[in-house]
Specification:
The complex is a heterodimer of chains A (about 250) and B (about 400). Chain A is an alpha/beta fold and about 250 residues long. Chain A is built from nine helices and ten strands. The longest helix of chain B is centred in the middle third of the chain and has 26 residues. The chains are: A alpha/beta (about 250), B mainly alpha (about 400).
Chain lengths: ~250, ~400
């Protein structure tokens, strides 16, 4: 039984079958990649997992509990964090504030109206945030406004914001899309470190096969909303159906 | 001290001193002088408006400045607060304590309802919803719809609500003042200090309102600097990330909206305490618009901006609208007649009833040249001075340039 169990998900947009009977089982402490050509339904699947879309049928169980019908913030509180294709951070706030907010969310739950408290009495939160920033080598940038950072730094900050909450499952939506090669290598290294140091389970949607094959333990291939095959990276590489549907055109 | 950092504490102390010394500071010219008659603002009726509208805009800024949600119906809460206070005068007594308490509570309750509905949408839709609510409230108050429904007086329609001799006033005893008072200290009571050509008026009502404003300002600094304030700024910055950080933005927004509505209720209650009558025009959409203008003029999202904006607009409204052609002719009396007449003709549309024109020009200038409002203007001047100082230091070669 995986930490995330997706069974028989169907989602239709008008006449378009975006997802057809998709099953997915993500085992704890593994990196599970979801690949597929454009329009295969990867992003739709991800949006179902985080509560942004409600599927027409099927079930999504996280840690034995159904997440269907829950709002994104409730699902996040259960321990699923999401990294976006374009980093979603608080661009008007400082790096430190960006990391403090998830610290509060983790400790206080979905809301707490601490309107008259001051940060002076929140030393443990500040310590926690500083420790996280140190781990991603951003402590020296803690007073910078987030919008003034490079894209790679924004990605790292977003990752830090997710990690500080110690999620049980990290969903990554094309974390290296549009990145330069050096940044991509850094991100792969960062994800590998996260995995070895923290043992966080990850589900990753990615186009870059280099990223996928250097990270994933298992790979699910989607094509036109249908799961084509699910297997280990080595088997996927040589799978004739996959080559035909996807890898062939990517020239790997 | 007071749970503020040193920068905030300095700003708070400066504001407190300025507010408390306003009766002196705002009367820089001798009373009888031409300049004094035109530009002195240190009289109680105007100073009350400075601080009361200061409270209103400080509260508005907690919503608009922190979360970016532009309420275009905030005057509704001001009006509700005013009506609630006058009703307390009518039913209980002229003591302002129950009046102000009720005005804050009622405004808070109504803002829970309006906020709950309006906050289902964001951006322009939120603004329109709040505007619609405020205009409905205005219509209800102006026609006394509630009163007609139950066959009683609630808002007294276009006449406005005021206290009559046959009102119950059940807590009133024989010797009580017949004007709003705080345990016997009447709001319109004052003491005057005559010195040279000046006479400074220290009015009880002004000082009560001023203390409320200082407290309101203090509270707003605390909220700005609290984790709650951080959450509100985060909502303004990126709601998607808020949701995917496990935060429910709704309670935060509603809390900000209600706090802001209660500030407006307090301001309304104080307006009634200064002058125990109120009318529906206090809730009209132009009144809501004025709050937005004050906020933007002063500097949205800054602590001190709203107070400056409210002060400037109320000053212009009273001072510019008081100037007439006769006064202008007096000023220009030393000029040749043709120049005098020409200047008066040019300036004429901008004074008296035309003060809105002056305000419009000023607003345009601020929005175009100082998008951060008066606060940005102050910061630029501050930087100019600092730069000068640092170049001086560099020239002296005592310190390496930064």
């Amino acid at each position: 039984m995986g930490i995330l169990e997706v069974k028989g998900i169907n989602k239709r947009f008008g006449g378009l079958q975006a997802l057809g009977d998709v099953n997915l089982s993500v085992q704890e402490n593994t990196v599970h990649a979801i690949i597929g050509p454009n329009g295969a339904g990867k992003s739709t699947l991800l949006n179902v997992l985080v509560g942004k879309l409600i599927p027409d049928s099927g079930s999504v169980m996280f840690d034995g509990k159904s997440v269907l019908g829950l709002k994104p913030f409730e699902i996040t509180q259960m321990g699923i964090s999401r990294v976006f294709q374009t980093p979603e951070i608080f661009i008007n706030l400082t790096v430190m504030e960006n990391v403090l907010i998830p610290c509060f969310a983790k400790r206080d739950g979905a809301y707490r109206l601490h309107a008259l408290e001051s940060f002076a009495s929140e030393k443990d939160m500040i310590e926690q945030a500083e420790k996280m920033l140190e781990e991603v080598n951003m402590l020296d940038k803690r007073h910078m406004i987030a919008s003034s950072m490079s894209r790679g730094d924004k990605r790292r900050l977003e990752m830090a914001m997710c990690l500080v909450q110690e999620p049980r499952l990290l969903l990554l939506d094309e974390p290296t899309a549009g990145m330069a090669r050096a940044d991509t290598e850094n991100t792969i290294q960062l994800l590998k470190d996260i995995r070895t140091q923290r043992g966080i389970t990850m589900a990753i949607i990615e186009h870059d096969m280099n990223v996928v094959f250097s990270l994933a333990d298992r790979i699910t291939v989607l094509a036109q909303g249908m799961p084509l095959v699910e297997d280990t990276p080595d088997k996927i590489k040589n799978h004739p159906k996959v080559r035909e549907a996807y890898l062939g055109e990517a020239q790997v | 001290m007071l749970g503020l950092n040193s920068h905030d504490l300095k700003m708070f102390i400066v504001i407190a001193i300025l507010t408390l010394a306003a009766p002196i500071l705002l009367n820089p010219f001798p009373d009888a002088s031409a300049l004094g008659e035109s530009f002195n603002a240190g009289y109680p009726a105007l100073m009350q408006r400075f601080v009361i509208f200061g409270i209103l805009v400080i509260g508005f800024n907690l919503l608009f400045g922190l979360t970016g949600y532009l309420s275009f119906g905030h005057a509704a809460f001001l009006g509700i607060g005013s009506y609630a206070a006058v009703w307390m005068f009518k039913l209980l007594s002229y003591n302002i304590v129950p009046a102000i308490l009720l005005s804050v509570i009622v405004a808070g309750l109504v803002s829970v309802v309006i906020g709950y509905v309006s906050l289902r949408r964001s951006g322009i839709y939120f603004s329109i919803l709040t505007l619609a609510f405020a205009q409905m409230m205005y219509a209800i108050a102006y026609s006394d719809l509630l009163g007609r429904m139950f066959g009683i007086t609630v808002t007294n329609g276009e006449t406005g609500l005021q206290v009559y001799n046959d009102d119950p006033q059940i807590l009133m005893s024989a010797g009580d003042p017949t004007v709003p008072h705080l345990f016997g200290i009447t709001m319109n009571g004052s003491s005057t200090w005559n010195v040279g050509g000046w006479s400074f008026i220290f009015q009880n009502g002004y000082y009560l309102s001023a203390i409320f404003m200082i407290a309101a300002f203090y509270l707003s600094i605390r909220i700005f600097r609290s984790p709650f304030g951080l959450m509100l700024r985060a909502i303004k910055s990126n709601q998607t990330r808020m949701h995917y950080t496990g935060l429910n933005t709704k309670p935060y927004m509603l809390a900000a909206f209600v706090i802001s509505g209660m500030y407006a209720g307090l301001a309304g209650g104080l307006l009634s305490a200064m002058d125990p009558l109120t009318g529906a025009e206090r809730m009209f959409w132009t009144a809501s618009g004025e709050i937005v203008v004050m906020s933007i003029l002063g500097g949205v999202g800054t602590l001190i901006g709203p107070v400056l904006g409210a002060g400037l607009i109320k000053y212009l409204e009273n001072i510019v609208s008081k100037i007439n052609d006769g006064i202008l002719h007096n000023w220009f009396a030393f000029m040749p007649d043709w120049l005098d007449n020409l200047l008066v003709t040019i300036i004429h549309p901008f004074i008296g009833k035309g003060w809105h024109l002056t305000l419009g020009l000023l607003f345009m200038a601020v929005v175009i040249f100082l998008p951060g409002g008066l606060v940005e203007g102050g910061q630029r001047i501050g930087r100019l001075f600092r730069r000068k100082k640092s170049t001086d230091a560099a020239n002296g070669a005592t310190k390496p340039a930064e």
